[in-house]
TrEMBL record:
Residues 30-198 form the DUF1023 domain. It holds the Pfam family Abhydrolase_8. SUPFAM superfamilies: alpha/beta-Hydrolases. It comes from the Bacteria. Residues 255-278 are annotated as: Disordered. This is DUF1023 domain-containing protein. InterPro entries: AB_hydrolase_fold, DUF1023. Gene3D superfamilies: alpha/beta hydrolase.
Length: 278
């Protein structure tokens, strides 16, 4: 069994500019040849609101800085920060892209929850490293939502957003802790919903966030493509993610309009359209 060294978080300068876009600062990074990297966009030290993005399978240090595609974790982090700033220019916002685990290389490797369990502790540790005064939101996409779900038992987060989740890693609501509101989104053409939501030891990714036992609040996505469209620029999905991260719950929409936030805190056939990098 490979021993995974816990991440050590710190604020280090990084050349985070791609084609003039928002630059970032490294919070943690494996040596060359490693897999993990954690980067912050915006000033996390003074931020009122911090969103932590947890990517799904297919991402690692080797392609993190070189990929400039719209679905890359860096591009998503930069876009979410811009969207938060446009919605609430009076607030201080920051986004952390947390690729702090060994994500499964392909979607068919993601039937086991081992990588999610291994990364959950480091993700939870990050939430306690970030300033306690900030409103903190975890945003997990695909397998990243499994990591986020497993981290919630010991993480500090006001909100957790699950995007195209194959399962939150848990079976019972009590496994999610008691401090976090749970939100979920599934695009109309996202076939991730066809994945069996079970957990048998290290196999399976647990129940989906919309299972009655977990009780997430579902929000609208609009017309987004497939499994990787949740961060589409200008989409209802992206706007809702930003609204939740800013604590603007009354502005979050479902399929038919504004939706009310739950009053209580939640602890609440093969997917052919899954891209290689979710």
């Amino acid at each position: 069994m490979t021993v995974v060294t816990p991440l050590r978080y710190g604020l280090n300068e990084a050349d985070g500019t791609i084609d003039g876009t928002i630059g970032g600062r490294l919070l943690a990074c494996d040596p060359p040849g490693g897999a993990r990297v954690v980067e912050a966009f915006g000033d996390v030290v003074t931020a009122d609101h911090v969103a932590v993005l947890v990517p799904g399978n297919g991402h690692h240090l080797g392609n993190y800085f070189t990929s400039t595609e719209a679905h890359s974790p860096r591009s998503r982090g930069q876009l979410l920060l811009r969207t938060m700033q446009e919605i609430a220019p009076e607030s201080r916002s920051a986004v952390v892209v947390w690729l702090g685990y060994h994500s499964p290389p392909e979607w068919y490797n993601a039937i086991t929850n081992g990588p999610a369990y291994a990364g959950a502790r480091d993700l939870a540790a990050l939430t306690h490293y970030l300033p306690r005064a900030a409103h903190l939101t975890l945003v997990g996409h695909s397998y990243g939502s499994t990591v986020a779900g497993l981290a919630l038992a010991s993480a500090r987060a006001e909100d957790c957003v699950a995007l195209g989740s194959p399962g939150m890693g848990v079976v019972h609501r009590s496994e999610l802790g008691s401090r976090t509101r749970l939100w979920a989104a599934y695009g109309e053409t996202d076939r991730i919903r066809l994945v069996p939501q079970v957990r048998l030891g290290r196999l399976g990714l647990g129940r989906g966030p919309l299972h009655p036992e977990l009780g997430a609040t579902r929000f609208g996505t609009g017309d987004i493509p497939g499994h990787c469209g949740y961060y589409t620029e200008g989409s209802e999905s992206l706007l809702n993610i930003a609204r939740i991260a800013l604590g603007r719950y009354d502005e979050v929409t479902n399929a038919s309009g504004p939706t009310r936030r739950r009053s209580s805190l939640t602890t609440s056939a093969r997917p052919t359209e899954l891209e290689a990098a979710a």
